Amino acid sequence: MSLLNLSDVSFSYITGKPVLHDINLTLEAGSNLGIVGESGSGKTTMLKLLLGLQRASTGDVSFRGQPLDIRSSGFMRGFRRSVQAVFQDPYSSLDPRQRVFDIIAEPLRSLKIERDIKDAVAQALEAVDLPADAARRYPHEFSGGQRQRIAIARAIVSTPDLIIADEVVSALDLSTRARIIELLKTLSQRMTFVVVSHDIALVALLCDRLIVLEKGRIVEQGVTRDILANPSHDYTRKLLASTPRMPKTG
Ligand SMILES: Nc1ncnc2c1ncn2[C@@H]1O[C@H](COP(=O)(O)OP(=O)(O)OP(=O)(O)O)[C@@H](O)[C@H]1O
Ligand SMILES: [Mg+2]
User: Which residues line ligand 1 (CB under 6 A)?
Assistant: First the structure.
């Protein structure tokens, strides 16, 4: 069964004109999806719909075949456990007053997941290649790349099926980027990723499927390899041409 499904979805913010039009999208477990498109094309907005942070203006969003019902707290608890997010800015996304332990433990506590919290945090830290003693420290003691690892540890601690990642490496320097991408690749053996990026090269490393958004519409959708080898849309060719090359990883 599909994890998430968007069917004929359109969306406008209260204040403005439509930013997403006629979106049809199915996310299968085990198949990472990349979303690319220029700034303002609606990538983050689409993630907000996938995360249940915004409701579609028209059309349907469903999770495991059930309508995504933001108002049902029971449904949303299960949903939050299965679908977690990591955002762009490693500096503002972590509460500076909390120790790393409490930051990573937060989903377990708020979702009332019955697991040994110490064990779970230790495992999450290990999974993102941070030392065990990181738990006692505060976010400001870490570099940007390490902070992004902390945010990733927080996202995986509830053992979700799906992680939604919005420009997670764009604030990082190139070599740090490459190492975080390697980490995501390793983690994607255990969970599915939706990755938004300006950077098609990142998406190509991580995602077997790709959608290209232009001004709120999907203009290309399919197997990443095929689209990159043979872009059918001018817009995709332009995006490819404007993408800097990634350093080799691994
Ligand atoms: N909270 C909001 N209220 C009103 N309009 C918004 C809001 N957030 C985004 N928009 C508008 O929606 C459109 C899509 O924005 P969105 O942030 O989804 O684009 P994006 O593809 O993620 O861009 P970027 O690559 O710069 O992050 C833009 O025109 C933006 O101005
Ligand atoms: Mg965005």
Answer: 13, 15-16, 19, 37, 39-45
